[in-house]
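FAQ

Q: What does a record look like?
A: Structure on top, sequence underneath. For example:
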């Protein structure tokens, strides 16, 4: 599909979902919810989202270091932040990942290592998400309807399991890599990339440390939603958010909308309704998270346009 057509279709899906939600949650009610909120909790929620992204940068930098690419926190942070800017214009978060990989590659080369660091960064995040939801759902399963949580959790388990086979099973990977044999150059690059990913099986301590970062990220994001709920006057246990927020954010990652706009909000309204949170509150919490992504993306865009693109040109 033409990239421009794909972009406009995803924009249409995002806007359509958001518009439908404003019909379900009247615009004036949403504004009143924000107007009546305790602003200090909203500020704390933003801080939690910021800390989550700091940990993401630390995780990626750690993976790069483990592969022998010595980048500073500032380098990794700027590349990641500028990548968020490109996420504002492309489906899901793929564009940002591609940009940050290109940024590090332009200076350090070693393309297969850089690409594997980004893929493992995402895989580690997915595994951490499933682990967090599974653990806290085990302790809080009596609090939330079973089928509504187990269905997406089961799908995530299946997805992560297949992803793990691609990364850690050479025979499984080579079976599917056969389709690339008609394109020898692509086939060779795929094999080289998989060899770099296989490094993480041979060094399990690296992978498990990256999982620690990943779980921390999801806890901070869940904390952000929890603090936002307090800002909107909701008094409910943190464990609900540790179960539901990772599921909501995973749905937002599905590449059908721009930065998850619309899909995140629809998922938040649905899943938080299971625990009795009013749609206007759920919608408001989700919009706050979306506002953070937009803010971070705009900040990354300012850095890219004013400084970073010239730096990349000099180093490419």
């Amino acid at each position: 599909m033409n990239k421009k057509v794909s972009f406009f279709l995803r924009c249409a899906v995002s806007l359509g979902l958001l518009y439908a939600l404003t019909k379900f949650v009247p615009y004036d009610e949403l504004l009143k919810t924000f107007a009546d909120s305790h602003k200090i909790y909203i500020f704390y929620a933003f801080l939690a989202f910021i800390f989550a992204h700091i940990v993401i940068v630390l995780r990626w930098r750690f993976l790069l270091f483990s592969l022998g690419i010595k980048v500073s926190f500032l380098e990794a942070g700027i590349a990641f932040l500028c990548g968020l800017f490109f996420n504002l214009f492309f489906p899901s978060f793929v564009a940002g990942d591609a940009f940050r990989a290109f940024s590090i590659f332009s200076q350090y080369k070693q393309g297969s290592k850089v690409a594997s660091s980004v893929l493992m960064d995402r895989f580690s995040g997915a595994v951490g998400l499933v682990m967090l939801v599974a653990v806290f759902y085990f302790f809080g399963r009596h609090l939330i309807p079973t089928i509504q949580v187990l269905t997406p959790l089961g799908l995530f388990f299946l997805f992560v399991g297949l992803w793990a086979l691609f990364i850690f099973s050479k025979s499984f990977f080579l079976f599917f890599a056969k389709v690339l044999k008609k394109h020898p150059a692509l086939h060779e690059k795929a094999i080289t990339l998989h060899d770099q990913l296989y490094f993480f099986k041979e060094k399990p301590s690296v992978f498990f440390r990256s999982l620690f970062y990943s779980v921390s990220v999801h806890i901070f994001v869940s904390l952000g939603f929890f603090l936002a709920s307090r800002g909107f006057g909701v008094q409910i246990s943190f464990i609900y958010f540790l179960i539901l927020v990772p599921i909501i954010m995973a749905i937002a990652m599905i590449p059908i909308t721009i930065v998850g706009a619309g899909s995140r909000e629809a998922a938040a309204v649905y899943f938080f309704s299971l625990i009795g949170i009013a749609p206007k509150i759920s919608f408001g919490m989700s919009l706050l998270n979306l506002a953070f992504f937009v803010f971070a993306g705009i900040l990354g865009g300012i850095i890219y346009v004013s400084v970073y693109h010239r730096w990349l040109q000099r180093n490419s």
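Q: Is there anything notable about this one?
A: The longest helix spans residues 279-315.
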